[in-house]
Amino acid sequence: MPRNQRKEAFDLKGSIDRNSYEPAYVQLMNLLKSQIASGQFPPGSRLPSEAQLCKKYNISPMTVRRSINLLIDQGMVDTTQGKGTFVKPIALSSVNFSLTEFVDILKEDGASVRLLELNAVKASSEAAAHLAIDPGDRIIYIRRLIYLDKDPVLYHQEQLVCDPKRPIVEDEMEVTSLKGLFTGLNQSGLKKGQVAINATQLSDQEAGWFRLPMGSPAIRLEHLFFDFADQPVSWGWFVCHSERVLFRAAVGPW
């Protein structure tokens, strides 16, 4: 759709709640996102100008800019110098996968952990590369099974930087810490992480735990977590049977 340069008449919806715990810029972002999702601002259309948004919602230009920057970060709009902010068309490159079904396993009341191994070992070359340490440095090696109602559903292997000042080992041994990690309630001092999803096959040992044939299709979810000094502190992966977890993605605004 060509970008229309004439002056549009906008029918802006909603209002900013000054008593809300949610910052004004987040409220504005959600208002604009809702109007984009409803089709009021279809792909290719121009959003109201900064001045129009300031006047309508009685907010500062800085608040508007922060809201627009959030929409840009989410891949919903882009800006053209001197022309304005435009709604982007749907693109598969902007797909965000949800781990909801994976997290739901950890959130279940019947979830529990069986610790298979907990040792201080020397870091392999691969572990050292991920954790930004030297091969042979001491790390904490953890293997465990996560059960749901007494059935093993996830295998987890993790390698942690060995730091006596961090009580991370005790935290990592419980399913409650795993739950917090994937639901935003984690308190272990982690700042950010990278997650990769790969197709794999169950090893002989994994197949035995899950009571499935060796070589059965499986999902491997690899993670690398960083502390607030941007140093990698935890590298590992979850393995589950491919029929147990489905990763879903939404395209475009919802």
The number of helical runs is 8
Largest sheet: 6 strands, antiparallel
The topology string of helices and strands comes to HHHEEEHEHEEHHEHEEE
What proportion of the residues is helical, as a percent range? 25-40%
What is Rg?
Answer: 23 Å
Mean pLDDT: 81
- How would you sum up the global shape? elongated
Strand content: 25-35%
- Adjacency order of strands in the biggest sheet: 4-5-6-9-8-7
Count the E strands.
Answer: 10
Structural class: alpha+beta
Terminus-to-terminus distance:
21 Å
pLDDT under 50 segments (min length 5)? 1-7
Features:
two-stranded antiparallel sheet, disordered N terminus, alpha+beta, 8 helices, 254 residues, 32% strand, 10 strands
Describe the structure.
The protein is an alpha+beta fold and 254 residues long. The protein has helices spanning 24-37, 50-57, 61-73, 100-107, 125-131, 168-172, 175-183, 204-210, and strands at residues 77-80, 84-87, 96-98, 111-122, 138-148, 151-161, 190-201, 217-227, 232-241, 248-250. The strands form three sheets. Strands 4-5-6-9-8-7 form a six-stranded antiparallel beta sheet. A hairpin with a 3-residue loop joins strand 1 (77-80) and strand 2 (84-87). Helix 1 (24-37) packs across helix 3. The longest helix is centred in the first third of the chain and has 14 residues, at 24-37. The chain is elongated. The two termini are 21 Å apart. The model is unreliable at 1-7 (pLDDT under 50).
